[in-house]
């Protein structure tokens, strides 16, 4: 392998480790160590055998990777970790929020990282986000739809249809103005990162 190829491979592997660090909610130390090693090898190889412009490139990419890894570590340690809860416990909390005296609108969906996110509108309540100990988060959303939606069968069908098209959808549950126990359910595309989470559930596996 030429010096150019060796430097390029080292820098690409360092960038790949940086991507893995940013994609993980709790990055592994081995990813950070791997990034430091590959970036360092890229700089060493460039300094030893590559032309001057390659040395500059190696230092720029290595510096970008090191700074990016530090920034990711600071950000991820300053943000509280997402709690891990039992599905039944989270279901009961969401159903309580969706009661007749609950907020005007409650939105339930699954994030691109597999967390169940609950957002409310009306009364100011904190956003709930949690990861299940076990089980499919999409099945939990369907259970909530079945329990509170006016036309639960239609809502579940729409939710599954969106999932089958690789659309990350959310259920918007609007309180009945007449005070009824059921809520109108609208299935809409998820806002923000719309990349669908790949669940292990056969019902909600992606095509």
What pattern of helices and strands is seen along the backbone? HHHEHEEEHHEE
Tally of helical segments: 6
Mean pLDDT: 82
* Structure class: alpha+beta
Alpha-carbon distance between the two ends: 40 Å
Strands, total number:
6
**Overall radius of gyration:** 23 Å
Major sheet description = 6 strands, mixed
* Helicity level: 40-55%
Order of the strands making up the biggest sheet: 1-4-3-2-5-6
Q: Can you tell me the residue ranges where pLDDT is under 50 for at least 5 consecutive residues?
A: none
What does this structure look like?
- This protein is α+β, with helices and mostly antiparallel strands and 207 residues long.
- It contains 6 helices and 6 strands, in the order αααβαβββααββ.
- The chain has helices spanning 3-23, 29-49, 52-78, 87-97, 137-148, 152-164, and strands spanning 84-85, 105-110, 116-121, 128-132, 169-175, 183-189.
- A 6-stranded mixed sheet has the order 1-4-3-2-5-6.
- A hairpin with a 7-residue loop joins strand 5 (169-175) and strand 6.
- Helix 1 (3-23) packs antiparallel against helix 2, helix 1 runs parallel beside helix 3 and helix 4 packs parallel to helix 5.
- The longest helix is centred in the first third of the chain and has 27 residues, at 52-78.
- The radius of gyration is 23 Å and the shape is elongated.
- It starts with a helix and ends in an 18-residue tail after the last strand.
- The model has no long low-confidence stretch (mean pLDDT 82).
């Amino acid at each position: 392998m030429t010096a150019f190829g060796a430097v390029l491979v080292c820098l690409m592997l360092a960038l790949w480790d940086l991507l893995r660090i940013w994609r993980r909610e709790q990055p592994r130390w081995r990813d950070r160590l791997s990034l430091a090693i590959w970036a360092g090898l890229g700089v060493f190889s460039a300094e030893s055998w590559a032309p001057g412009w390659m040395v500059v490139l190696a230092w720029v990419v290595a510096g970008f990777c090191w700074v990016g890894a530090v920034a990711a570590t600071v950000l991820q340690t300053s943000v509280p970790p997402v709690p891990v809860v039992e599905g039944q416990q989270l279901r009961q909390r969401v159903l309580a929020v969706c009661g007749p005296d609950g907020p005007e609108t409650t939105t339930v969906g699954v994030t691109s990282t597999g967390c169940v996110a609950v957002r409310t509108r009306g009364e100011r309540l904190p956003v709930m986000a949690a990861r299940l100990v076990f089980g499919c988060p999409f099945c939990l959303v369907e259970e909530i739809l079945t329990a509170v939606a006016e036309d639960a069968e239609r809502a579940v069908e729409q939710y599954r249809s969106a999932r089958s098209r690789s659309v990350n959808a959310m259920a918007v549950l609007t309180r009945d103005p007449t005070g009824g126990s059921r809520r109108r359910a609208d299935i809409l595309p998820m806002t923000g990162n719309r990349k669908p989470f790949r669940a292990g559930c056969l019902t909600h596996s992606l095509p």
